[in-house]
Every structure is written in C-alpha cells, then in structure tokens.
Task: inverse folding
C-alpha cells in the first residue's frame, strides 16, 4: 500500500515568516495530493490540493508544489498568522484510498 | 456548501452498550467514508461506501458495523467496544470514490468506559 512520510513533525515560526512542510509518497499510482488543516477538537479542513498532472498551485498565502519524479510534494504558507497555528496533514490518494502523513504541528508566535 | 454533519459530537458508552454514530451530507456526493483518529495521530481509513455499497473494509473488527441507508446518510453501529476503541471518529464524503475532494465532518469523540 501507499506510505506517506511528512516532515517536520513540529514547526515554530514568528508571525510574518514563511512555513514549509514536506511530504514524500511511495506509490506511483497515487494521483491526488490534498492538504488538511486540523484545529484542536475539530475535523480536518481541506485547504489546498493538487493533481498529478499539475506541478504547482497557489491560493492566496498558500501554495503546493509537486515533483512526480521524486515523489514529493510540499506546502508553503507565506506571511504566517497566529490563526495558522494547527496540525497540518498531507495525504496521497491511490484509487479510492487516502493515506495521510503523520502531521506537522505548526506554531505561529505573535 | 461543503458541510458534513456528524452526531453526536461526544459519546460515552460502556463496553456492553450498543450505540450508533450518524453522518449526513447534502452535497450529492456518492462516496462516504469512516475514519478513526487517535490522539496525535493521522486519520486511519475504516470503511468506504461507493454508491451506497460497501467497497472497502480495512480489516475493521466486527464490533464496528457500517450502514448506508441512502446516498446522504452514513451510520456506524457500535457494539461491545473496548476502551482502546476510544478515539475521534470522522466521517467524510467526496463526489466520487476515486476523484473529487474529500470533506470531513467535525467528528464524534467516543469514550469507551
């Protein structure tokens, strides 16, 4: 099955800095890569996604890049704000199954 | 509207109890999912329903019994659970099982005593 590795497990930044979270996947059959933000006591919220035929996608302060050859994808958050503090999960979909990375706790200090 | 509604939000049950978790979506999605999430861990897939039929069971113990009464509803029936089954149970849905974005509900926090 698919295996998704995510790094770092914890990331602390100052407000206004950029944050980068990286993931690798193992199965070349995976073709869709979403990112979720999960706040304490809530369900995961989809924040951005990318399909395997696209290399980069941006939505305001959030961007995702995908390198299919190397089987890795990254989340970039610019101009971080305290409300960006949460756990972020990357995921890879192979057929109908989403496999998640272990998560990154992002802490943005004012 | 990308809302998936789960009830109840919290549930405490004894090991001999029978209870059910409910999930509802009105986005016309034809795939629905149950995930289990332990503290500080990622969600783990339990079941996939595709067009109201169970398509994937990730070797989940029979004390968890899913049901999809119609295209908008998904239930998870619980019976004779163990304390280690305590977790956040998440429901999700997507337009199709192999395509489309998956949207999650807020989850049911289950405690087995």
Result:
């Amino acid at each position: 099955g698919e295996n998704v590795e995510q790094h770092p497990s914890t990331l602390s930044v100052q407000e206004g800095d950029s944050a980068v979270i990286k993931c690798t996947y193992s199965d070349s059959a995976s073709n869709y890569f979403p990112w979720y933000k999960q706040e304490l006591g809530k369900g995961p919220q989809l924040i951005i996604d990318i399909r395997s035929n696209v290399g980069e996608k941006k939505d305001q302060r959030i961007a995702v890049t995908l390198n299919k050859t190397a089987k890795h994808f990254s989340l970039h958050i610019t101009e971080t704000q305290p409300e960006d503090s949460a756990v972020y999960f990357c995921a890879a979909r192979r057929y109908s199954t989403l496999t998640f990375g272990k998560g990154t706790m992002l802490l943005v200090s004012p | 509207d990308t809302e998936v509604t789960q009830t109840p939000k919290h549930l405490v049950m004894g090991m001999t109890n029978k209870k059910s978790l409910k999930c509802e979506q009105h986005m016309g999605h034809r795939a629905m999912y149950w995930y289990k999430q332990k503290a500080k861990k990622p969600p783990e897939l339990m079941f996939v329903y595709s067009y109201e039929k169970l398509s994937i069971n990730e070797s989940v113990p029979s004390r968890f019994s899913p049901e999809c009464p119609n295209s908008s509803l998904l239930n998870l029936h619980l019976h004779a659970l163990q304390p280690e089954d305590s977790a956040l149970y998440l429901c999700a849905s997507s337009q199709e099982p192999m395509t489309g974005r998956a949207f999650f509900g807020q989850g049911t926090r289950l405690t087995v005593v």
